[in-house]
Amino acid sequence: MIRLDRKRQTVAILLAALAGYVDAVAFLASGSYFVSFMSGNSTRLGVTLAAGQSVALVVTLVAAFVTGVAGATLLGRRRRGRRQRIILLVAALLAAAAASAGFAPIPASLALTAAAMGAENAIFADDGDALGLTYMTGALVKIGQRIADALNGGPPLAWLPFAMLWSGLIAGGIVGALGHASSGLNALWPAAIFALVLMPFVGEATHPSPPHQPGL
Fold first, then answer.
1. What residue intervals traverse the membrane (predicted)?
2. How far apart are CA 116 and CA 96, in angstroms?
3. Which pLDDT value is given to residue 205?
4. What is the CATH number that goes with domain 6-200?
């Protein structure tokens, strides 16, 4: 996160807000399954297996998420404008999910949404690694590490970009919950539009050159 310049950090926070929004809509529509947080779904998979219940939905969501990551990564290997193409894919998948609401089975709409969230994580991928935009466990770990560094004489505010990323997800979740309460899965339309609005600002990530700090 802190390797990105200030503009790209802002875009990353807005993309995290988009993920929080979409995940909240899908979580409420699905009966407490996630489309962006696959650790949570993996725990749900274990609990569901232990209870002897159907795992079809959670397996579908995990598979769709991984497919979205793979598809966006392949799309991004063509260097020129790759981030714009990936966010366009995210917008298209969200629009397809919204358009399918009401006539397609809910799991189909949710699968498209999970694929969109998987693709989103490839937007800031560099050298095979990805900045997690739809899950915040890594960001919370970084907050703790940077606070420890600050207490040990390191940069006092190096934790702040990760806290902002986490806060973006929460803010999006609040708005997404309100959107679902009023519109159900149709609340995915604003998410698709928002992704398109962000498209011109994604660009190619640039990296500032701060003093090297292990583990950034």
1. 12-35, 55-75, 87-108, 158-178, 185-203
2. 10
3. 47
4. 1.20.1250
